[in-house]
Amino acid sequence: MNVLSQVYTLHNGVEIPKVAFGTWQITNEEAYQAVADALSAGYRHIDTAKSYHNEEAVGRAIRDSGTPRDEIFVTTKLRAPALGYEETLKAFEEQRLALGLEYIDMYLIHAPWAWGDRGNPCTQANIQAWKAMESLYHAKKVRAIGVSNFLPSDLQALIVACEIVPMVDQVRYFVGYTQRDTVAFCKEHGILIEAYSPLATGKVFIEGLFQEIADRNHVTVAQLCLRYCLQKGVLPLPKTKTKSRMVENGQLDFMIPEQDMALLDGIIDEGSRLGEA
Q1: Does 275 have pLDDT greater than 50?
Q2: Cα pseudo-dihedral 249, 251, 257, 259, rounded to 10
Q3: DSSP summary character for residue 24
Q4: Handedness of CA 11, 195, 16, 75 (dihedral sign)
Q5: Rounded to whole angstroms, how far apart are CA atoms 174 and 197?
Q6: Catalytic residues
Q7: Which residues pair with 74 in a beta bridge?
Q8: What is the pLDDT averaged over residues 241-263?
Q9: Judging by DSSP bridges, how do beta strands 104-109 and 142-148 pair with one another?
Q10: DSSP letter assigned to residue 242
């Protein structure tokens, strides 16, 4: 089975395609064609966010694709910082209408802090936002709820104060920057890790070892790095506007041998030059 047809199962039993098409830094003008091409290439998991300013085009491409709605998993995100319970309910409805969809498959809190104020969590606002997301989940307006950019302490604050454990934590993750503490915490609590920037915003292509290992396995560097995520049980979100690369990024039906995985694991974690991506 092609990897684009394979799924992970979230802790609530919902199936989520193992590879997502990311739309960060794709403008609203570009997003329609990009999402249409991704769906044509076989992607069935589309990721967007309020702060990407492209929900309208993403939703239009999904509606126009001819692909049955129940075959497409759509994620969007509450803009950071979270402001509270009622604000979250209002934001969700605005985003659902922008997408033009009856329901959203997964809704995430985009970050535990305000943009530009990283490291200063808005804990009480996040808790209220999460309680609103729980109500959306119970009302079946979303099939899954989760977070993005949350560290273990941020996750723990929600787990202690709220009813539902997040189903996903979408974090920056790639070979050489694997957020081991966050991954360990999430594994303990059944939270799926999603990897944004799985190619280190292009910096993996300057790492000679990656090319050497890719050549040995007869794959591209991008394929190697995306397959690495999958073999770690992580869901990658590759992004490109070029259809040929979309196709390439979905061709991941191979296995990286243990000795090469060990080499990739050995790349300096947290603070390497790739980790600065």
Answers
A1: no
A2: -10
A3: T
A4: positive
A5: 7
A6: 52
A7: 46
A8: 96
A9: parallel
A10: -
